[in-house]
Amino acid sequence: MNEGVEIVAEMHRTLWDQFRGSFDDLTDEEIHWRVLPQANSINVIVRHLRIESEWHLRSIQSGAPMPTIAALVSQEAIDAVPFDFAENLNTLQRLYTAFCGALGTHSLGALKDKSAAAHGEAVTGKGLAYVLAYHQATHLAYHTGQIRSIRNLYRKTRGEPARFFPDNPTYPRGDE
Question: Is pLDDT above 70 for 126?
Answer without folding.
Answer: no
